[in-house]
Amino acid sequence: MTFDALNIAITWPEIFLLTMACVVLVVDVYIDDERRNLSYSLSQLTLLVTAGLITLGEAEQRVLAFNDMFVQDPLGDTLKLFILAITFVVFVYSRDYLRERNIFKGEFYVLGLFGVLGMMIMVSSSNLLLLYLGLELMSLCLYAMVAFNRDNGNASEAAMKYFVLGAIASGMLLYGMSILYGLSGSLAIADVANAVATVESGSGAQLGLVFALVFIVVALAFKLGAVPFHMWIPDVYHGSPTVVTAYISSAPKIAGFAMVIRLLVEGLGGLHADWQMMLVILAVLSMAAGNIIAIAQTNIKRMLA
Questions:
Q1: Each residue of 22-64: pLDDT tens digit?
Q2: Cα-to-chain-centroid distance, residue 39
Q3: Which of 79, 110, 154, 239 is the most exposed place for a label (fewest CB within 10 A)?
Q4: Which of 139, 134, 267, 135 is nearest to 213 (CA)?
Q5: Cis peptide before 234 (omega within 30 of 0)
Q6: Is residue 294 very low, low, confident or very high in pLDDT (cuts 50, 70, 90)?
Q7: Taking a C-beta distance cutoff of 8 angstroms, is the pair 145, 108 a contact?
Q8: How far apart are CA 68 and CA 41, in angstroms?
Q9: What is the distance, to the nearest Å, from the Cα of residue 290 to the centroid of all Cα atoms in its chain?
Q10: Distance between CA atoms of 203 and 131, rounded to whole angstroms?
């Protein structure tokens, strides 16, 4: 791989976000509680500049980088801007919320920035390995944010449930990806799509694809909180600080939507007749069961979950 093949220019928003997240982390170590607002201000500035870099370098067509592992396209740029906008609003709300509860710490914003970085990587992934790394970066940050209020037993319990079920979902996703790699011989989503298109009906490879599809769809349903894989959401939303609930219920869902597009539409488009029906069933169950169960809830966060 040559340096020119990296096409590093289209990754400047992610590079800047990573750099500033590390800067905020270091700055927060050397400031006292009275100047903690500096971490908040730097984090908000980081989100604004990152959004500006995305807007200035907005792609009119599909551009690949890092040996075709990273992709920039209009859809990805739009989703990234939505993620940054939601995170900015959550950070604005978080300042007074965290101060009132004496948990106004820079770690919250560091975790939030690294979580956004993971989401942006997921949005721009054109490789199964990079997609999984972005997902895990986001997930690890969310686990820590759920348990951010360490003195609250509900938060610790919610974080543990989130971690255990999230690990199960990640394992299922990884297993599905490993089957795709075994069948296609490549981690590139484009190569997986080509391999799927050449699979003969009734062959052993087609059976393997069906297993991979089931594992991937179930893992995506876990991550998106679709019925019947939603059992973790009410407890996690209820136990988390409200500002964390606002964060994990919005921005990661956009990243999950991008993951569905990259994996199912671009990678497994040849199996659209199979996964479309699965998604329809999950969507109908989520809308019906979710609204019916919400009627009996007395807590606003559990009702929204």
A1: 999 999 888 877 788 899 999 999 999 999 999 998 777 888 8
A2: 23
A3: 154
A4: 267
A5: no
A6: low
A7: yes
A8: 35
A9: 22
A10: 28
